[in-house]
């Protein structure tokens, strides 16, 4: 992968590009007619249309949240809610239209797929345009499809699990996704199957004033194992777009799921998502979450520890690198069963007037005995115009627990910069060395290819910061 570095960028933020022609593009604005049109174009069963319409009504009834970033500049009536870029998804990269294929050139989808992954999917605007699973895993019963395709090909298993972890009335943006969802990944790992190389999906927004609402559903059956890597990026546009995904993960008894999210949005994107997992007896859910770019991000992955002995480790990194940018992120662990454990480690970097906020929740119900949880929040502020906040919350209803919390917010130290410069290192290089040391515990959890790319992206955003908008 290092040899590809000069001509391969996994999540590059390109400059402005021309609007493209599509198979279908809905009119701007919210309406039941748009919901019905989406369902009709997808030829969905009646229960899904009813689900969408019910979700739409709930979305309209709920007000915007007031406890986080100000979202009043987000104009729902100005957004387009569905774009169909191609007639169908392809399983061969060569069959994808050239204009769409070129949009993914910088992600190296094909190069990475051939070398390191069990399967790769790519979503462009509102639809999956490419999905492929290697034959060796297909023979073992692994299902890796676009979510729309899974609804058609595996309707029973789809209906059994869809909307069970994140219900349509969970919050305003979960309802919005439930009404307009399109695309995303559907993964089912059979009992005892251990997929020892990751599955991956890319999500790309090219249009302005677009709402992208992918829906991802991962089911790991008993004793199975899977890793899933998700990468997101967008074209820089003059008008804002919205990314409002929902991710549901079901980790059954003794299974292990590792979920990586690496999002490098442009500064015109509102990133407002709901991501949640349920871990049953002795299951392990690991969450590695990286947020770079966007105008506003609100993301708080949650794991519900529902079975005895279930465990979760959640590691997040947020970079707020320009004035007005808000990275409002964190994690939640809900202990419903005894002998469960959780660890949340959050790291953030604020520079050039950006603001990062950590929101963490640990909840232990009364019947959950002998639970362990540890929360660590570390924030690094690069200058005197940036900001970092920490909002930990603990709801402990059982005495037989072991709970720990640690938080550090610090400025980059001039004496360390001076020391490195006195050894012949430039100021920029000294700053990069300090940042790399700060994020080391996060980066080492990533697959090697992504560790290299994350370091490059962070260095890019730290230097560019003030010019982002």
Topology:
Layout: E1 24-25, H1 32-41, H2 46-61, E2 83-84, H3 98-103, H4 109-116, E3 119-124, E4 127-133, H5 135-138, E5 143-146, H6 147-153, H7 155-161, H8 172-180, E6 185-189, E7 199-205, E8 211-212, E9 215-220, E10 225-234, E11 241-243, E12 246-251, E13 256-265, E14 269-272, E15 274-279, E16 284-293, E17 296-299, E18 302-305, E19 311-320, E20 326-335, E21 341-350, E22 355-364, E23 371-381, E24 387-396, E25 401-411, H9 414-422, H10 427-438, H11 440-443, H12 448-464
Parallel strand pairs: 3-7, 6-9, 7-10, 8-11, 9-12, 10-13, 11-14, 12-15, 13-16, 14-17, 15-18, 16-19, 17-20, 18-20, 19-21, 20-22, 21-23, 22-24, 23-25
Antiparallel strand pairs: 1-2, 3-4, 5-6
Helix pairs in contact: 1-2, 2-8, 6-7, 9-10
Which descriptors apply to this entry?
ten-stranded mixed beta sheet, disordered N terminus, 469 residues, 23% helix
Polypeptide structure, described:
The protein has 469 residues and is an alpha/beta fold. Helix content is 23%, strand content 36%. The chain has twelve helices and 25 strands. Strands 5, 6, 8, 9, 11, 12, 14, 15, 17, 18, 20, 22 and 24 form a 13-stranded mixed beta sheet that branches. Strand 3 and strand 4 (127-133) form a beta hairpin.
Helix share of residues? 10-25%
Shape: globular
What would you report as the Rg, rounded to the nearest angstrom? 21 Å
What's the overall average pLDDT, rounded?
Answer: 88
The total of beta strands comes to: 25
Query: What distance lies between the first and last C-alpha atoms, to the nearest angstrom?
Result: 31 Å
Continuous helix count: 12
Low-confidence stretches: 1-18
What is the SS-derived class?
alpha/beta
Q: What share of the residues does DSSP label as strand, in percent?
A: 35-45%
Biggest sheet, in brief?
A: 13 strands, mixed
